[in-house]
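> agent: user asked for a holo structure of the chain below bound to zinc ion. Plan: (1) validate sequence alphabet, (2) canonicalize SMILES, (3) run complex prediction with ligand conditioning, (4) return tokens. Step 1... ok. Step 2... ok. Step 3 dispatched.
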Amino acid sequence: MAPKRLGLFSLIIVLIAIFSGPTRGLEKSDYKQITLVPNEMGEVMVLEYHLIGRPESDWRRTPENFRRDLEELYQNGYYPINLRDLVGPELDIPKGKTPVVLTFDDSSIGQFRLIPEGNGWKIDPESAVGIMIEFSKKHKDFPARGTFFVLPAIKPGLRLFGQEEYIKTKLEFLQENGFEIGNHTYYHQNLGKAEPEEVRRQLAFAQKEIQRYLPNYKMTSLSLPFGVWPKQKELAYNGAYEGYSYDHNAIVLVGFGPAPSPYSRKFQPLAIPRIQAGDTPWGPGAHIKRYQKKPELRFVSDGYPKTVSVPVKEKEDFQPRKGLRPRLIKMP
Ligand SMILES: [Zn+2]
């Protein structure tokens, strides 16, 4: 289900990371002291997770490491939101915090497992949803949010988080508890190899299948399988098949790097880059260290959803948006 190994581009990034210094820099006690100046033109990280389980590998994060990722984000002033919020009309983030989006592809069981208990069930505390919820209970200023790009029509036992008997329960739980469910096609079709009609069928039938469980749910975010576009790109944006329609206003790619601020002219909501989870020189931890050294690069909220804090020297890059007022600031 995972894309092929990253090629030449990743090698270049590794070299940049190696020559730009060590990736393990400041101690926790140092970065707690940093007071960040609001800058809503800075970068945002959209993280990309696949399997959650053991052992750790290229496309698998262990529960321990996932918990450590949350801890590191929390300690460094990040604040989880769903992908749909990143492209929403406005961003509502507490002052001084940096939004971060956690995304999960392929709806495997390690992301969300339920364990029968008495007449009911409990959430496996070692699954991603269990870990996020437990963490947010401990830290009230770090909500449990994330976007799950699900596969509704791969084999039973694998599709929609693996436990057939709990599919409806899990999807309802995600919806009711503030998580987002996103489109990842009907069964992980490489859209670059599909005819236009098949592209529309894959995207519309994914929507149809989710609505069997959540009748009014509209998926507005899409993760392209293998990061591959259909030959006619616009088919990924919106369309219909046999009376079922889809309309995406956020599309994520596989890799590679932070996203520009959603208020920047450079931001493309229909082609948002992601950062693959893992302890690599191009992973989230490396970027967190980079932002410790250069905090002026990261998005920092001013706490006012209707106001966008724009550094003077970036005012040309601000993309005006109805209902939002820019506020020019001088960076130190
Ligand atoms: Zn996938």
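> agent: step 4 complete. Summary for user: The CA atoms of residues 114 and 166 lie 8 Å apart. Residues 42-294 form a domain with the TIM Barrel fold (CATH 3.20.20.370).
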